[in-house]
Amino acid sequence: MQSRAAEAYRSTRQKTASPRELEAGLLLAAASHLQAVPTDLVDDRHPPNTKALVAAITFNCKIWTILITSAMRGGSDLPDAIRQSVAELGLYVIRRSAQTLQEASGQSARDALATLVEINRSVASGLRG
C-alpha cells in the first residue's frame, strides 16, 4: 500500500515538475549511475565492468547533449552568457567522458568519474535554487 502511494506521488510530481526540476532530476540520476561505477574499478587486478562504465557515461552524455541543445536553441529565455556557459560545460563533460572511456580503469578513471558526479550535482543544485 505504502509503495503504491509513493509511486503515485512520484508520478504526480513528475507530471507537475518544472523543466528545471526535471533537468536537475536527470542530472542527479546520471550522477548516481556514474557513482555506482567506481566500485567496479577499485581493484586494478580485475578487469573493470566496462558495460556499466559505458552505460553510465552514455546516459550522462545524452543528458548533457539535451542540456546543450536546449540552452542553445532559438527561443531560449536564458541570457546569452548562461547559454554559452552551459554549452562550454556540456562540451567539457562530453570530452572528459570520452577520455574516461579510454582510460576505463585505475585512479585517473575514478577521479574523472568523481569529477563528472560533482559537476552533475553542482548543476542540479543550481537548477533547484
Describe this protein's structure.
The protein has a single domain (19-128), classed as Four Helix Bundle (Hemerythrin (Met), subunit A), CATH 1.20.120. It is built from 6 helices and no strands. It has helices at 2-16, 19-36, 38-41, 50-72, 80-103, 106-128. The relative contact order is 0.16.
Care to give the gist of this entry?
Helix content is 83%, strand content 0%. By secondary structure, the protein is mostly helical. Helix 4 packs antiparallel against helix 5 (80-103) and helix 5 runs antiparallel to helix 6.
Q: Would you tell me the structural class of the helices and strands?
A: mainly alpha
Roughly what fraction of the amino acids lie in strands?
under 5%
Give the distance, in angstroms, between the N- and C-terminal Cα atoms: 33 Å
Give the SSE order as H and E letters. HHHHHH
